[in-house]
Amino acid sequence: MNRVELADFLRARRARVTPADVGLPAGGTRRTPGLRRQEVAQLAGMSIDYYIRLEQGRGPHPSKQVVNALARALLLNQDERAHLFHLTGQPLDRPRIREDVPDSLLHLIAFLEDVPAYVLDARYDIRAWNPMAGALMGGLDSTSPGERNVIRWVFMSPEIAEHLGDEEKSRFARGSVADLRAAAGRHPGDRRIQALVAELLALSPAFAELWSRHEVQVRREQRKRVVHPVVGAIDVICQVMQVPDRDDLRLVLYTAEPGSPSHRALRELRRQTLSS
Fold first, then answer.
1. 118-156: burial string, b at 16+ Cβ within 10 Å, e else
2. Contact criterion met (CB below 8 Å) for 100 and 109
3. Pairing, β 246-255 against β 232-243
4. Rounded to an integer, what distance in angstroms lies between the CA atom of residue 32 and that of residue 103?
5. What is the pTM for the complete model shown?
6. pLDDT tens figures, 23-79
7. How far apart are CA 13 and CA 151, in angstroms?
């Protein structure tokens, strides 16, 4: 149980919920945004003293019933509820992170000849990719494993703005930090995730500001624009799929609307990949 992270998360989520959201009267002047501690305790059916101890990082180990009650009181979504369970040490089948990529997954991305595809782990390290992903993202073959970290690129690489654009970078950065926090909750003992977070907190004020929000959101399908130096802007549908029985690995695919300019750009990229 991570008492410090749990306390921070509860305070951040409490500040987000207004009395009107949960059917309570505003009740005069409020010194802080969101619900009062007493209101959360009332909504969750627990004593105010018990809840205060949780927010102060000195509470007991809450039961599943208490965690579920807190999730309801704070209006947590599915990802935030799962994160709360991870922080309290309640079992949501926490698998061990393994370093291998299954051969079946390597074969799959190899057969996807027209689609940029890569394997991403919980730390945002790119662990495997096909030629189309290498052509679209650039530089994967010439970098060491430790340098193939997507979230480090977002906050530490000045070239990423040219690849994604400022607005796209901002949206992707916020989603990535929320997803990384969810991963840190699922794998509290993973020292490489902890080291990455510590590094970025020390070196990137932008990362530190987003991390302090305690936002949690598991990355799924999204749309984004990628700017390639040769074929130009490509509006891709980024499909993120969990690898069965591997909570630490995800398969990422970039597709485009059939017949669209972006689809034609991907086909041109494929042609150039074959001729190089």
1. bbbbbbbbbbbbbbbbbbbbeebeeeeeeebbbbbbbbe
2. no
3. antiparallel
4. 53
5. 0.70
6. 777 666 677 778 888 888 888 888 888 888 888 888 778 888 888 888 888 888 878
7. 24
The DSSP 8-state label assigned to residue 93 in this structure reads: -
Q: Is the pLDDT confidence value at 117 over 50?
A: yes
Burial 194-216 (b: 16+ CB within 10 A, else e): eebbeebeeebeebeebbeebbb
CA distance 130 to 159: 22
Distance in angstroms (rounded) separating the CA atoms of residues 209 and 222: 23
Q: What residue type is assigned to position 202 of the chain?
A: A
Q: Domain 3-87 class?
A: mainly alpha
Protein fold of 103-275: Beta-Lactamase (3.30.450)
The domain ranges of the chain are: 3-87, 103-275
